[in-house]
Amino acid sequence: MLASRAMKAMKASKKKAQSKKVKKSVAKTPKVAANPAKSFTAKELKVLSKLNTPAKIQDFVDNLKYDGADDYFSVRSTLRTGKAHCMGGALVAACCLERLGYGPPRVVGFIAENDDSHAVAVYQKDGYWGAVGKSNFTLIRSRLPVYKTVRELMMSYMDFYFNTAREPSLVGFNKPFNLNTTGHSWKFAEGSLGEALDNFDDEEITPIIPLLPPHLRKKGGLALKKKRALGLCSKHVLKAGLLGSNPAGLYKPR
User: Given 35, 167, 198, 221, which is the most exposed site by the fewest CB atoms within 10 A?
Assistant: First the structure.
């Protein structure tokens, strides 16, 4: 899950969080080059060329060291550092999927309550949706391309999306966001993406779509009307989800 720059379920908290993140980004992260190179180096292409199936892409992002940094980083930066959180993994996956002809590079954001948010790269094969993703939780990574709609794909994550207190936490998602609408920096920037992906985090540009049934949601919101209304996940499922996780990157539920 994405511990950094987490998207919030409620508009007020999300805008407040974004304001803090922008200030932090300006203060502590390097600026994005004004004109980053618009092609990969031979060394970078050697790595990317080997990732010629969704399964190989998934294996690659799985093996990246989990990154707890509070920022978004380009594909180039991730290839150089060998580490990523879910958004970094999603950017690499989206880049590879585009190279393989699976359509434009698209990512979908997950909105969670009392938990980290998440993001995956999505693609279509024969008209059906699948996903490739990196996460500190093993159960919310890839999905086979067998889902008719994006919503159906997102619902496949519902039973496996919970916090460390075993509380189901997934409440919504963003419609697929085409990374190419932001330019080239998401691929080629030398480090932090700064504000390059602000449109992805902006609810007015990339609306949030609720996943919970209306009778379970708070009026006018996304969150559960009653805490633990869906019960708790199994302890065994939690154990499976935490397999190989980085404790430092886990969200601490309230």
Answer: 35
Q: How far apart are the first and last CA of the chain?
A: 17
Q: Cα(121)–Cα(134) distance, rounded to whole angstroms?
A: 9
Residues 6+ apart with CB under 8 A from 227: 167
Residue 214: helix, strand or coil by DSSP?
A: helix
| Dihedral over Cα of 155, 160, 166, 170: its sign | negative
The answer as to whether 70 is a domain residue is: yes
Q: Which of 144, 208, 151, 177 is nearest to 72 (CA)?
A: 177
Q: What is the pLDDT of residues 58-84, one digit of tens each?
A: 999 999 999 988 799 999 999 999 999
Q: Does 24 fall in a domain?
A: yes
Residues 77 and 196: their CA atoms lie apart, in Å, by: 14
The closest alpha carbon to 151, from 173, 135, 134, belongs to 173
Predicted local distance difference test score (pLDDT) of residue 146: 98
Range of the domain at 31: 11-248
Q: How far apart are alpha carbons 124 and 121 in whole angstroms?
A: 11
Q: 73, 178, 195, 175: which is closest to 134 by C-alpha?
A: 73
What are the percentages of helix, strand and coil residues in the chain, rounded to 5?
A: 35, 20, 45
Which pLDDT score is estimated for 4? 38
Tokens 């699948």 sit on residue: 130
CA distances from 186 to 91, 138, 157, 194, 236 (A): 7, 25, 26, 10, 38
Q: What is the DSSP string of 76-98?
A: HHHHHH-EE-HHHHHHHHHHHHH
How many domains does the chain contain in total? 1
